[in-house]
């Protein structure tokens, strides 16, 4: 940590700063420049994080030198983390050579539409099924999801297709229930800093898909992952889904640079949600290709058998043929990125056998 | 709701759009322009909110005509809502002629510092006490608040000073507990769209101080209030506390225009938190004056007996003399705004009598 | 300047960094922490600004210690700068005790409307007249201003009312022409980093009203002022006019905190343009009051005799009675801020005498 | 254009609105909803753009139906525009099947470094050379470019390598001079709405590379292109280079979605500048791949023989081997996108022959 002092600092103020830092167990080192004095603080920055150093008289600014995340930092792990989803016998690995495409409806609206979607996305090469049971909606008057009933449908769809199931949990009181039915607990963007919820999913043994908040920096996303990991659950999958922007052309601003930045900062796998980033189905293919080209470990995509009938997110949902076409379009980009995508044909064979 | 269609829409697509809208119980009205056809939808927009109208073939854009909030809308109430805090005998009224200044430490760090702060801010003219028991912190390694113990201290401070107590609740499982000890339930900025929590505080009879999320539009803030109100709790106080910005000069960007916009849109009272908006104690006075001049119903300000010793938010906390000076500086602005501020002298007399 | 190095820096890389810095005439000072080495660079940062230090192997980040602006920095001047507008005999002083309200139409649309506005705003207490001759318009098909003809009308309005005239210059080839007719050269927000133009207005002896760019940080605004001042023209007036934001409720986001930040950083006077910040006439009064309360030295406001007939910016223009009402509403806030506003009555007397 | 009226509109106000619209030559069509009246305006919206319709009593909001750009709109052209750079005999085509990679130093710092870079980037497959002669710098004290001298060096580099030359022009007085030496006139991001400059480059017959401003919407970028095209110059190349964002992890936020949005909206070619988007050389390869995957027509990349010695933008410049590696990495992505990249080997042969 580096403390830049004000031009008019007094010797007594400087002494107080040094004593304050040293009382936290760090050593200090003073550099006297021509116009400013800088105090270098040697030792564990974290000891100083929560205090009022920046509020002391004579302090102009405090700059941390070390990253605030530890378990999520790339240095913490010898290599990229592989998160295993689904059955122990035939797990889906997120973060390995094979890209992970997760697809399904925004909301589970019924058993028939869910199964139709599940079979179709599996046939096209998706390896996991998404579907909302509890929906965060801006309006209290909008459809809030089918809740527990939808969890049962998701479990049924998994039984029929073999696809592990990803669904959002919004309430710490429901973590256990959702973990009973789902293979992956999704933390939605609006809950990225819901620390009660992060701690709760940190205490169960289910992979967590953690979406970046609309106004969260990349460092804040990693700190949210740290909350989960600090409770003991190391299976965190990060997801860029577009951040708050000011151009009305898209629903959010897809921060594709977050992918390589995260790859440099952390060992955790990184997915992209192009559907929420764009908010428009016509842009989903281009953003999906860009995500893979930037180094993402996979995608999570909204697919609906009939987007015009969708009870939520219709405009950004692909219909079944469009998803099929997208998967075909992705293959050469996956190859260009040195990654693999499950073949659509093989998936169909597996379906027949299932 | 107005539906603008694509230039190449077919008659069959236009029919399908009209049927879709009419199936929801609305009437349609078609305007044929030189280059585009527009379908006006007459009736309750809300019936169409959750569907896939925008995903239908031939639809270019959908523009709502009516505001999505109802209970929070200004039209819903004959006049400004007055929220009553504290004892029935001597309540504090938020939203009336008298401005409401709430002050206290970011975190409750101990009984002595809390009482010292409470007496000092009351003497200076504050009418309620803030203090964090459960703290949302970006890092899992930072001080998380004293929890239940702090709630007891807050209740004790109220007993000693008569000041109603405002504290944040972050977990729906703790709403009941917090409501037992506190007079106002604060929903923090990061939880503005934590819908499980909003619904839960909507079911208790305690005023709610709802902070605007860092990337929430004003309309989204009002929709969050609607969540609370739709559960039966109409005592919602809104709070602008700075939004996500890109200038590092301040911690957040204080959107002072939100104050008059909210005053035009809703009957609910509007406070401003200049401490989080600025992130720097030296800016708090100017932003406080600006907030009152813009029409705010009051302020919520972080005050600490020794900011350099604070366990959180030290750099943005005022010390006790600075708060006293601020209150003096605010008085002429309160008068200019046609509002009153409790006199510091009277507050001190009351203290002696307490 | 502080250089934080990478964890794996080699001794040779460290030596190269030190030699690089020392070759620019600075001294270096090395702090060896437990995980990182920091190189403190002692001397004039500016010598290093334009080089590739941050690109050297082993460098993780470079943090400047000193502010990049010199002439605009508060330390450069013994006190606040007073900029004098208009005639030497009865100048208007910007930055003194008296607040400066500049008002007038977005565009000069004709002689009659300009004179009507000029007389009315003077009667209400405005001390200078604004009016666009050359208009920056997003569309090439929109009204671009009356150009030279409008300059003549502005000079005529000054002759009739005694009000100094403020108008925008967009083209370095026209600086001389505009300076012949106008008392203040306005640099619009979109041209804040038009360095050819900044240099050109820096070479004439006319006060410059420099608007903050929609995506400019406060530091960048001060660097733009530095461009003008470095050419010899020290009469720069800064203007906050709203920055790029993402809430559609307002045209821009009024960054009221920029006012106290600028007051702390620079000796130059600071005005606020509430009309462009809001984009809506109904918000202009609240934002104007907030600006004065935050410490602004004055306002520049769009006023039109018939906003519905305006050829540009109608929705954000006040009509004449609304401007009159605003001036009355501002007076107690000016007094609360310890400033004065010219009395409307006196202004009217002066008008009769003129 | 659709006019939504206020709930309390009077019949006289409604009549006035209709008369206002009809006076501009449009027809009106009134839809009476249950709570609001909407006035549809049929005809050329543009006739109403510059007036005060939104300021009329009784108007709540005005929503345009048609896009404001005409020459730049996709409908204006039968197919994608191909912009030809350089010699008539062997032109480089931007916007065709072959991707266009433009590379070179941020600033021309001398003849030797320019030629070394030019030969190296040509050998790696670049088809045009970039290099700044006049540099827009935030600080007046930073290196401003070598000016005219650099133009001569660029022309010399073209003569030696056959690469067409791209350089920025910042001053309308210098457009003619720059056009004499350069093959493409670059308009920098900060000048995207410098309308005097846009008009001037619209009057010469040189292709224009128009960079998106840091706070410009995609629609505003297209309107800036419209300014150039309206003067007669139809050879406009658009360039996404990152927009203003709030995450300090990158210099700007690369809005990769702008690529497919622009491809849907306009016939003009679209390049990406990953160097300015990232601000960090290590991210340039990932962003370049993402750009091609999203459908960009090419890239403009900063390359320097020794980034640590660069006088500007060192941290984001690739060195020569890194650029060579990038071109190799791009090839499979180009193929996946169905596009071609000039082969590095062929380029080298051509160099020998030159």
From TrEMBL, chains A, B, C, D:
<dbReference type="GO" id="GO:0009073">
    <property type="term" value="P:aromatic amino acid family biosynthetic process"/>
</dbReference>
<dbReference type="InterPro" id="IPR052899">
    <property type="entry name" value="Class-I_DAHP_synthase"/>
</dbReference>
<dbReference type="Pfam" id="PF00793">
    <property type="entry name" value="DAHP_synth_1"/>
</dbReference>
<dbReference type="InterPro" id="IPR006268">
    <property type="entry name" value="DAHP_syn_2"/>
</dbReference>
<dbReference type="GO" id="GO:0016832">
    <property type="term" value="F:aldehyde-lyase activity"/>
</dbReference>
<dbReference type="Pfam" id="PF18152">
    <property type="entry name" value="DAHP_snth_FXD"/>
</dbReference>
<keyword id="KW-0808">Transferase</keyword>
<feature type="domain" description="DAHP synthase ferredoxin-like">
    <location>
        <begin position="1"/>
        <end position="67"/>
    </location>
</feature>
<protein>
    <submittedName>
        <fullName>3-deoxy-7-phosphoheptulonate synthase</fullName>
    </submittedName>
</protein>
<dbReference type="GO" id="GO:0016740">
    <property type="term" value="F:transferase activity"/>
</dbReference>
<feature type="domain" description="DAHP synthetase I/KDSA">
    <location>
        <begin position="91"/>
        <end position="323"/>
    </location>
</feature>
<dbReference type="InterPro" id="IPR041071">
    <property type="entry name" value="DAHP_snth_FXD"/>
</dbReference>
<dbReference type="InterPro" id="IPR013785">
    <property type="entry name" value="Aldolase_TIM"/>
</dbReference>
<dbReference type="InterPro" id="IPR006218">
    <property type="entry name" value="DAHP1/KDSA"/>
</dbReference>
């Amino acid at each position: 940590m580096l403390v830049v002092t004000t031009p008019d600092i007094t010797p007594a103020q400087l002494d107080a700063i040094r004593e304050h830092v040293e009382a936290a167990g760090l050593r200090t080192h003073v550099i006297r420049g021509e116009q400013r004095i800088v105090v270098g603080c040697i030792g564990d920055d974290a000891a100083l994080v929560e205090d009022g150093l920046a509020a002391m008289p004579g302090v102009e600014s405090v700059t941390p030198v070390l990253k605030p995340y530890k378990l999520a930092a790339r240095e913490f792990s010898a290599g990229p983390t592989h998160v295993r989803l689904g059955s122990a016998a035939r797990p889906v690995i997120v973060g390995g050579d094979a890209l992970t495409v997760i697809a399904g409806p925004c909301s589970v609206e019924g058993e028939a539409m869910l199964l139709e979607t599940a079979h179709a996305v599996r046939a096209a090469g998706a390896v996991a099924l998404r579907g909302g049971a509890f929906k965060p909606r801006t309006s209290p008057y909008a459809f809030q999801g089918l809740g527990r009933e939808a969890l049962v449908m998701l479990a049924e769809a998994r039984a029929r297709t073999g696809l592990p199931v990803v669904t959002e949990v919004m309430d710490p009181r429901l973590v256990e229930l959702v973990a009973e039915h789902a293979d992956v607990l999704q933390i939605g963007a609006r809950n990225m800093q819901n620390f009660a919820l992060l701690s709760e999913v940190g205490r169960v043994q289910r992979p967590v898909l953690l979406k970046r908040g609309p106004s969260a920096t990349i460092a804040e996303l990693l700190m949210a992952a740290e909350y989960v990991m600090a409770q003991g659950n190391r299976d965190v999958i990060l997801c860029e889904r577009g951040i708050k922007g000011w151009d009305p052309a898209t629903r959010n601003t897809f921060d594709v640079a977050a992918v390589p930045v995260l790859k440099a900062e952390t060992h955790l796998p990184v997915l992209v949600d192009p559907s929420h980033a764009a908010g428009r189905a016509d842009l989903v293919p281009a953003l999906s290709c860009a995500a893979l080209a930037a180094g993402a470990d996979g995608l999570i995509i909204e697919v609906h058998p009939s987007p015009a009938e969708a009870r939520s997110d219709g405009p950004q949902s692909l219909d079944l043929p469009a998803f099929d076409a997208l998967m075909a379009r992705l293959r050469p980009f996956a190859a260009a990125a040195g990654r693999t995508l499950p073949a659509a044909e093989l998936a169909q064979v597996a379906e027949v056998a299932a």
